[in-house]
Amino acid sequence: MSNFDEYIEKVRDYLKGKTIKEYDCPSSVDALYQGMPVQVGPGSNPGIILRSDTFAELGNPAEGSTGFILWTEDPSRVHDGRISLIGPDITELEGSSQPFGQVIMLGGQKLNPDLQDKIEEYQHISDHLEGYMVRSSSRSIWGRISRKAAAKGFDLQTLGRALMIVMKSGIPEIESMEIVFVTSSKSDIQELDTIAETVESIRKDIIKEYWKEKGYDLECDLDCNSCNYRETCDDIKDILRTRNRMERAQSAEE
Q1: What CATH code would you report for 5-206?
Q2: 19-28, 130-139, 193-202, 209-218: which has the minimum mean pLDDT?
Q3: Spans of all domains in the chain
Q4: Tens digits of per-residue pLDDT, 91-113?
């Protein structure tokens, strides 16, 4: 049983009894690109979205937000291509600021704790998505959608598909991927955040244990998005990943 299997079931329980819009997207990255109203990929986002250029805002601290990632080694636990939405979509939110929740669930037989930090790198993709800007910490997501993007048809299915494109492209171990978005109310976000709180504790333990095995005893809050030493850590991670690949390749040859 994977670290997060229990919490995938808790998300399932959370969804019960709520009014949900469901979208089923294709599995392959090539098919996910088809029909996207905005650009997806490195350099797609030109930069900051000013308040005057904002169509809608999600997860402003005054409204509340939460976000987390769950993964399992059993791909069948995750509905591949499924996007579930609780609450209004972007097209209904012009000029408003709305609470926001984002849950990403991944399945793959080769997913493991060594990939935790890499998985988290893809949780927020604003630099890879036209018309979307996000400021985040480990559990909060504060996003803006530009007026130009909204006019092109940007909605939460667009955001979900973009997340699937970027994550599946960057992490080949992902076999199935499912996303839940919540824009309904503060109380719904608070309910979801009770799950996020425990998930946050588990992910920190996973990362600490990973680095401890590599000989590093981390003394930080493990929020890489706001860390002043992220560039140094990323360099170390790249070196370790390269070494691990070389060791696996050497073992396969022996």
Answers
A1: 3.30.1650.10
A2: 209-218
A3: 5-206
A4: 999 999 999 999 999 999 999 99
Q: What is the pLDDT of residue 179?
A: 98
Q: What is the DSSP string of the chain?
A: --TTHHHHHHHHHHHTTS--EEEE--SSHHHHHTT-SS-BSTT---S---GGGEEEEE--TTT-EEEEEEEES-GGGS-TTEEEEES--GGG-TT-EE-EEEEEEEE-TT--GGGHHHHHHTS--GGGBTTEEEEE-SS-EEEEEEHHHHHHT--HHHHHHHHHHHHHHH-TT--EEEEEEE-S-HHHHHHHHHHHHHHHHHHHHHHHHHHHHTT----S---GGG-TTHHHHHHHHHHHHHHHHHHHHHHHH-
Q: Is the pLDDT of residue 213 over 70?
A: no
Average pLDDT along the chain: 86
C-beta atoms surrounding 254 within 10 Å: 4
Distance CA 111, CA 120 (A): 13
